[in-house]
Amino acid sequence: MKPQSHPRSRRHCPTPLTATAIGAALLVSAFAAQAQDATQTITVTGIRKGIEDAISVKKNADAIVEAMSAEDIGKLPDASVAESISRLPGITVQRSAVTGRAQQVTLRGMPPDFGVTLLNGREQATTSASRSVELDLYPAELVGGATVYKSSNASLMTQGLSGTVDIQTVRPLSFGKRTIVGSYKHEMQGKAEDLPGFTTGDGDRASLSYIDQFADRTIGVALGVTKSKNNGNARPNFNTWGGWVADVDYNGGKVKTPGGFTTDIETTDSQRTGAMAVLQFKPNKDFESVLDVFYSKGDFSVKKRGLEGPLGGLSAGANDQGGKLINATIVNGVATSGTFENWKGVIRNHNEDYTDELNSIGWANTLKAAGGWTLKSDLSYSKVTKNAVRYETTAGLPGNAYNAADTISFSGFNGSNLADVKYTSGLNYADPNIIKLTDVQGWAGGAGVQDGYYANPVTTDKIQAIRLAAQKDVQWGPVVGVEFGANYADRTKDRVAKEGALVIIGGLNADGSVKDRLISTDMPGATVGVGGLTGIPTLNWDPAGSLGKVYQLNPWSDHDIVSKSWGVKEKITTAFVKGDVDTEIGGLPVRGNVGLQIVGTKQSGSSFLIDQSTCNGGTHQCSFSAINGGASYTDVLPSLNLAADLGGDRFLRFGAGRVVARANMEDMKAGIDFSYDSTENHYKGTAGNPQLKPFRADALDISFEQYFGKKGYVSVAAFHKNLKSYIVKVAQAFDYSGLLLPGAQPVTANDTLTRPINGDGGRISGVELAVNVPFSLLTEKLDGFGVMVNYGNTSSSVKIPTAGVSTANISSVTIPLPGLSKETANLRLYYEKHGFQIAAAARHRSDFIGEISDYQDKTQLVGIKAETQIDLQLAYEFGSGPLKGLSLMAQGNNLTNTEFVRYDIGNGNVTDRKRFGKSYLVGVSYKF
């Protein structure tokens, strides 16, 4: 028999699944408390309330979790959901290479795809080619909090290998009264003093939340809407062409010079509308129904205006014969300065625009039935569509290689500092009399014409799911409750790519053949800009909408373009059973759960197969046909979570289980993209693999936690994941004979195909330390002060082959696990008292290999340098008088103006440097 002093009985402490729902209520409980006698209750608000609510979730959970909570309705402690989550132990973010803002969450140093993001317990569709959720689709004002599950749980559907993030919206019946909150914030980005010579961006964000209860508190309604608009600052970028240093002929010998550069000024404009609605119906204690809807629509535009060109004597196209080095200063074999004559620079006027739209709906019902059973149902739907349009246009000297009249001079080169070299031009690139829209370099090849490029990829992802479950209290020895059920999810993801050359109208014949490959025209609406960090004046224009007016499209169906269109379907059926544990071990009260999931998967992938013999290099046209494939398999996933109460508010937690991460969806396509390599004299290709099975790992977690009531805690945790299988891209021998038509080059013994396969795994392990305490625990003189600090150290034996990595100069055959930062750390110091709030925060992660989308809309692995960001928050809330309910706030983000720096994985040379500048927010909110 259990002792009466046991801290938790099955009747009073919920299972982890229902603990999630209670956690959502805790996140907003600062507003749910009904009026009580002030002599009996001390109301905690603001920063400390958010901290205490999050601590309550962590302390009361059966699994090993982390949590973050909004300080008030629509008031997360940071500007975005991603930033708030990233301050939790063992969690980091990857900044967007375009905006500099936190975008993707990385759990425990593993790739973003190893984690899963849920909304109110339901898997969400994603805009990228992978499964990782881009959190900027979820406006912070509509989110109440989040729980991060680090150990597995049988009743939690769609778990990740690295962990599971569950974003939560509010539940209106958890509030004690009607609550209305409105807020407005003004933002300034990239302050001019941070980016001399470039403009400052600004923006506005407004939100309104309404929560109410009706029919004697049996019906609850929560509504939220937010609108943001941002005119981004101008940011300079510099690309060193992969860190390329050229060996150039000079005075009978070889000297080193920069190989080429691309530099531009980027401006971003964005706007987003978000809405949230929750209808909660609870007519009695036996039945509850919750319908929630989440909507988000964004419009995003990136404008790039700059200059690029080859150096080092390189001929970059059919219209360029390459420059010759003259007047150089040589130091130890390095041309520290010099001039290349016969140079042809290319003015870049590029637009990259997209719209995305997310619709997420869920309907959950809970019924307490006869015999002590609780029946649950959950229907959900999530769909996102991303429609992108990219214009790349080129301008410069028209004509062939023999009329180049320009020179490019460089100085300040030491052999490796490619991003710091100073360039000057001998030509006025802002003169409309000589600068024209044209195929400057002849990038289409000797017989083709390419005055620009157009791409229109559309990604659509849809998930439909239904879950049924039953739960009952039992007395089966240590098992005090049982829950079982099933979940069925149907997911379809498609990507359709339309691409081709922009050709000035009149440059093509009616049949699409080339009429005039050297055609040129004036630049409409031209203005004078600057060629990126070179400072060279250039002619600029806005190409948006120019298709059909300035350009005609020559659609391309080359093998590498057709392969970008694909589709993947998944049908996943999960049966689960879980028992809640409440017992004693060695005289210690122990609670937790033990469970099992059986997951059946049926998947298929589709794409296209190019008929290489039909390809025309001049028109870039190929014939192709559809190709399909698929697989079915079953995973058995046991899990165990135990929490021992050591007394004195100390807990020892243990978690074990088998976890999986499904393959990147683009890797599951069926198409084969190949061609004959005339340099190496054999066929080479790439492909997806619709038969891919998941990453699989056996996971162990242990955590010691010392709590100080609900005010603070100290924890030490360790984890180990033994990967039984890992997905790697490898180059293997392949027989192309069945894919070739008569007349094609014959197959060889050296033909290879690079594709993802299931291989052996490795080890991932780490330790996490966290301290979250108010200083009043030390002395009342420091009441109001507090600190949140955590540190994570992760190591891995996993190495991936470089065969599937598109990067230059890799000498080794493997690279480290993508996403892995050896060290991560967060620090937040705060003070809150008498309505005043101030918080200073720092976030750090060491070097790692990250995923980006390149200029061809392909996912690439790149090195990203270590970075530390520092933020500051100030606020004051009026607690009495006529202004009661009014709050004033100010935030400063990235106050150290931390750069976003990419480097070549092979040689370590910096390839890109981006400075986004500091950003500031000032705002006001009113609650009544």
Automatic annotation (TrEMBL):
Keywords: Cell outer membrane, Membrane, Receptor, Signal. It is found in: Cell outer membrane. SUPFAM superfamilies: Porins. Residues 59-162 form the TonB-dependent receptor plug domain. It comes from the Bacteria. Belongs to the TonB-dependent receptor family. InterPro entries: Beta-barrel_TonB_sf (IPR036942), OMP_b-brl_3 (IPR041700), Plug_dom (IPR012910), Plug_dom_sf (IPR037066), TonB_rcpt_bac (IPR010104). Residues 1-35 form the signal peptide. This is TonB-dependent receptor. Residues 632-799 form the Outer membrane protein beta-barrel domain. One of its GO terms (cellular component) is cell outer membrane.
